[in-house]
Amino acid sequence: MQNNIIYTTMSRTPIIAANWKMNIGPAEARAFLAAFKEEKLCECKGVEKVVVPPFVTIPAVVETLNGCSCLGVGAQDVSDHDNGAFTGEVSTAMLTELGCRYVVLGHSERRQYHGETNAYINKKIHKALSAGLIPIYCIGETLEQREGGQLEQVLRTQVTDGLAGLTPEQVAGLVIAYEPVWAIGTGKTASAADAQSAHAFIRSVVAEIFGEDAASKVRIQYGGSVKPANAAELMSQPDIDGALVGGAALKADSFAAIIRAAAV
After folding, report:
1. Which of 55, 70, 198, 230 is the most buried (most CB within 10 A)?
2. For domain 15-35+47-62+71-80+87-263, is the CATH number 3.20.20.70?
3. Which one is catalytic: 107, 109, 141, 199?
């Protein structure tokens, strides 16, 4: 995978997001945030910090933060509909009313367990952007696809189809999370060099479709068993602009350590 274009990182603030998945209820979230406050990370500048709780936990997080702006709040999904007979779904208006600023879309677990396609995720991205939410768009290959030489094809298709119909300005303002599926929750992590190569390729595809300005501005996170021990090496790569963190973000101290690694 070759990409010789170097894009400056000066205008890209790293973004570290904690994806709690189906973990941490309201009471535990309050305890997490109390411990997080003790880490004094509001003093950690130059890094955007986000927590993405389950739907039922979002109100407790927002209430506990009480207007504190050093930690943003996101949701793990959203409907492509505004309202109606869609049992179990949550709309963009509901998320914005709660105080969410971000929404994770296209996570591999949604793709795998709920059959979400690039086209369907694209509808959600458009809906989120129209409501003023910042999508964190997840892409990545399975181990079979990587070993079968399909990595670039899979990533190109996910970028092309998932971001179809967006303007360069919209793409520049969202977040892409590269998560190799084989590394999510497995303890396996792509090497820093492999992760950088994939990120650089993704950025090159964005440049082809949306222009070099959008490519230089869009933030691309790495996700896949990110932890304090490997965060600094990953964050030091020129095209890696943060992390979407799963298991290591369930404890305030390990999440804090990853944030500090991105600030170095």
Report:
1. 198
2. yes
3. 107
